[in-house]
Amino acid sequence: MRYVSTRGSAPVLDFRGATLAGLASDGGLYVPETWPTLSAGEIANLAGLSYAQTAARIMTPFVGDSLTSDELLALCETAYGRFSHAAVTPLVQLGHDQWLLELFHGPTLAFKDVALQLLGLLFERFLTGTDQRLTIIGATSGDTGSAAIDAVAGRAGIDIFMLHPLGRVSDVQRRQMTTVLSPNVHNIAIEGDFDQAQALVKAMFADPALSGRFTLSAVNSINWARLMAQVVYYFYAAVRLGAPERAVAFSVPTGNFGDVFAGYVAARMGLPVAKLVVATNVNDILHRALSAGDYSKGTVQQTATPSMDIQVSSNFERLLFDLGDRDGAALAAQMRGFDTSGSLRLTNAQREGASGLFTSARVDGDDMALAMRRTHDRTGHVLDPHTAIALAAAQRLEVDAPVVTLATAHPAKFGDAVERATGVRPALPGRVGDLFEREERCVTLPATLAAIGGYVAEHATPTLV
């Protein structure tokens, strides 16, 4: 398996190279050169497998020669052995045709653990036996940071610098990052929003002063290996609801488009997906793009769903590339226009290609709170606000198929919002129950390349040659 950049001019890499690089050198994102496919029989044969076995089966064609089948399975068993539920991503029935896929049973209580526990192990495996030192730079709107830090804290050969927008993540999300005191972990609160943090990460990758001195890599969903790991739970859930004989729809709370793009990859691989619902909050750039072809930035509004408070969705580029006949030069021109004007019109081919599989919904704060309250009253189940956005969108969908809402975070990560909507204050699980008693370590810096890049240069370990 070889990996190409969405912008067409970066070197073609194998899986190991794409994983360690994260972002392509031309500013694009790596995607597989071709989509592997599974037959109906191969999908049916997933039915009796554990989550780790399913993961190894789904990911094998993407890994190519970078790992043996036994090595991949061993890494999956280690990664998912840390989850608190034996099913790793269990399904919970809410109604006749409405289901939750609980993705928050990992160490940091969010869906990001499903990918990042594996990614940390992949980094370590690919660095073993080399003199290479990896400097991971990431931006987080809440959950990626804590999951990435947990995955690489204390690992040899790795430094991690995680940017989060000051005052725009929940207290639990912040503390899950800032209370990790390992010497290789550096938390940076920027005086700006998530889109600025994400832009700074891309700017640092493009800065020769940093990229020439350090081996930079990414843990955001711009890293292909993260999306690859997220494809697995679409297969795992759908098979348990009757696939391949039965199609399944998924509703996904969406900010950076990575999680729902993993569902698109599953469909390209042959999974019968009836519909992918792109559920946004009032920061609705993706809803406008899919419903009207208008991918244009607005002003980020701060909400009770901070992981969705985004106006630039990096992974949308991967979809535009795939639906645009994989023309890297044309996509690069589109993205240059977007970077200049803050606006992009989808081509007819991109709009038509998306319309068959995707639908979208914009859910405001009132409808989010209503979904939380009604679900608790009717089923006793407590939702986090991001999951509530997706459930509200799922309940608007008219489709003759089971609808699975991705439950992306434990409700205790957003206790204030949950309590306002339901009157119930969810407790943190025992394994993180002392979170508010731990010491914090974090620096606050202005949202400039000079300040952030200078801090990284001062504290990172240069690449060893």
Automatic annotation (TrEMBL):
Keyword line: Amino-acid biosynthesis, Lyase, Pyridoxal phosphate, Threonine biosynthesis
The residues covered by the Threonine synthase N-terminal domain are: 2-80
Residue span, Tryptophan synthase beta chain-like PALP domain? 89-327
Q: What is its EC number?
A: 4.2.3.1
- According to its UniProt record, which protein family does this protein belong to? Belongs to the threonine synthase family.
Record organism = Sphingomonas longa
Instruction: Report the leader peptide range.
Output: none
Which pathway? Amino-acid biosynthesis; L-threonine biosynthesis; L-threonine from L-aspartate: step 5/5
Cofactor(s) annotated in UniProt: pyridoxal 5'-phosphate
Protein name (database record): Threonine synthase
Task: Identify one Pfam family in the record.
Answer: THR4_C
UniProt xrefs under PANTHER family: THREONINE SYNTHASE FAMILY MEMBER, THREONINE SYNTHASE-LIKE 2
Specify whether Lyase is a keyword of the entry: yes
Q: Does the keyword Heme apply?
A: no
Catalytic activity from the UniProt record: O-phospho-L-homoserine + H2O = L-threonine + phosphate
Q: Which GO terms describe its molecular function?
A: threonine synthase activity
